[in-house]
Amino acid sequence: MKKSVLIAVAITALPAIARTGATPSSALxxxxxxxxxxxxxxxxxxxxxxxxxxVIFINGDQGQRADRDSVESMLAKFYVxxxxxxxxxxxxYFIFMSKDANFxxxxxxxxxxxxxxxxxxxxxxxxxxxxxxxxxxxxxxKRSLGAxxxxxxxxxxxxxxxxxxxxxRAYIQGGFSGYGRKGFKLKKAWIQMADFTAGLAPTTFxxxxxxxxxxDGAGADGRLDKNNILVRYLHTWSNHWTVAGSVELPSSxxxxxxxxxxxxRDYVPDFAFLGQYQWDRGHSHVRLAGVIRDMGYRDLTTDxxxxxxxxxxxxxxxxxxxxxxxxxxxxxxGEGISAYLGDLSSGNYDLLADASDPxxxxxxxxxxxxxxxxxQILPRLASTLCLAxxxxxxxxxxxxxTYKYGQYLSINAVYDFSPRLQLGVEYLAGKRKNCNGxxxxxxxxxxxxxxxx
Length: 453
What we know:
By secondary structure, the protein is mainly beta. Helix content is 6%, strand content 49%.
């Protein structure tokens, strides 16, 4: 008997929405809610997606085809991801599915064209990172015009259920944000079987769904959305409680300018964990996450190796306030976790030299926080406000140009011209201050045209 193939063409109706549910069952109650009056705009869009998707059987026997409910339940799994970011690609336009609806492969991507204008200062990057604000200002660094296609990406998503190894999912994504802002770069590549995930994936210490949605690729000051190679266990029960723990490949960023010390290779993994309570069909949650890390160096004055304990804790939440408003909030504190925080990850701030004790490195304290609100003004028009800050608190007498703090503001509006075409505009304001008191600020106007497939 010839094997039949089902091709499902799915058309989504809204930009990507960060899912907070953790299990396939909770995802189905999301997109297949029986009472449409209780649905949010995103839920209604997905509900329509499932019912309006076109299904074509090739060489298929009518009596052997999976029923519509099985097809739609498989399509719904594309939205089940505890660590989905609002800027991640949409579900794929083209989906290939087996006749029994137990195996599917999606191929998709997004083409993004970003343009911006900086004034009253500048950042020499398509990402608006306050750590890259030019200090001091000069006539050459007061304004800048730029454009980039670096947010464009492609991905493959393969899923199976009721197989000899149980339910599984494999995902790989790459984007054009590598060398020279044009080279191809691997972003994610992971395999999930039941409650286990292995590969390059968002760290368990993060909570992408609790970050306010921005058009700017770097996002809020101190944004915690690092991808690590990891092995994670994540389990949800009663559709309300989730716990997870992971062992992650370390990537310490240690100050290498101190003549009295040398760096040691990382050989102890980072350990991350989280606990979460979710409600409102998975659209709202509160999460507490943490990380513990070991960082080493050699004291050249005594010829001895030393290890410093790094730690971090983050409390985060995303919550619906009525039918059209979503609130976001995060607060993070730790020592030696700069590699996890967006703006500081570009420097070597995990361990710094102690000016009062030659040959000694220490883990500086960092604080970060963000708040935001999204308003669904019209079915096709949404606006998001984000305020954030990142504080880096080294000991006395750090290097003069050491980052002390940054402040970030963004407000945007996104309009859906069609299910696959969106246009967004955004105003950004940022400030950087160094430990020697030098500071500078930047204003940016940005537009983003995005087409997903």
